[in-house]
Design a protein that fits this description.
Distance between the termini: 16 Å
Number of helices: 8
Helix content: 40-55%
Order of helices and strands: EHEHHHEHHEHEH
InterPro entries: NadR/Ttd14_AAA_dom, P-loop_NTPase
Organism: Gramella jeungdoensis
Number of strands: 5
Structural class: alpha/beta
Strand content: 5-15%
Pfam families: AAA_28 (PF13521)
Largest sheet: 5 strands, parallel
CATH superfamily: P-loop containing nucleotide triphosphate hydrolases
Domain NadR/Ttd14 AAA: 5-169
GO molecular function: ATP binding
Oligomer: single chain
């Protein structure tokens, strides 16, 4: 049985992690966002903000980590797995920040495909920033448009999740898979 890989994406502060946690509470298989992990590991190695200081290295680490998640999802013996962000997210952010990247990034997104993409729109009422999320809401809006266009460029048709309570958003996603 092939495990269907379902990405939940969206700009910063749109509620992705909250939905992933809710799905997990409901017994669903989920793979969590790895960017904070990458950032914290770099801080342990003495680089305060890897994304700002070495954006290409940060993005390479994200691409590798998300590719590892992709392979991990293939090894699961379940119908589907929910993944907090996918490979194209890396390119969307790099393009937003006008960071050049090698063709490997593009071919990786072409070669490793997801089964369904859910995108959470920017939502000012729930947006908060913290130590790892330093974008303003206006920047989150712009990042969101890059996410939409990047996924569409790779042939996906992202399903926009309505701005509802977490339980209702989660139910919306489950009803669409």
């Amino acid at each position: 049985m092939k495990t269907r890989k379902i990405v939940i994406t969206g700009g910063p502060g749109t509620g992705k992690s909250s939905i992933i946690h809710k799905l997990e509470e409901m017994g669903e298989n989920c793979l969590h966002e790895i960017s904070r992990e990458v950032t914290l590991q770099a801080q342990k190695e003495g680089i305060d903000q890897l994304f700002l200081e070495k954006p290409l290295l940060f993005s390479q680490k994200l691409l590798e980590g998300r590719l590892n998640q992709y392979h991990k999802a293939n090894k699961l013996s379940s119908q589907h797995v929910f993944i907090d962000r996918g490979l194209p997210d890396v390119l969307a952010y790099m393009e937003y920040f006008k960071t050049d990247y090698p063709d490997l990034f593009h071919t990786t997104c072409e070669d490793y495909r997801y089964d369904k993409i859910f995108i959470l729109p920017p939502w000012q009422e729930i947006y908060t920033s913290d130590n790892e999320r330093y974008e303003s809401f206006e920047e989150a809006l712009k990042i969101s448009s890059y996410l939409y266009s990047t996924y569409e460029r790779y042939g996906y048709e992202p399903i926009e999740v309505p701005k509802l309570a977490i339980d209702e958003r989660t139910e919306f996603i489950l009803n669409k898979i």
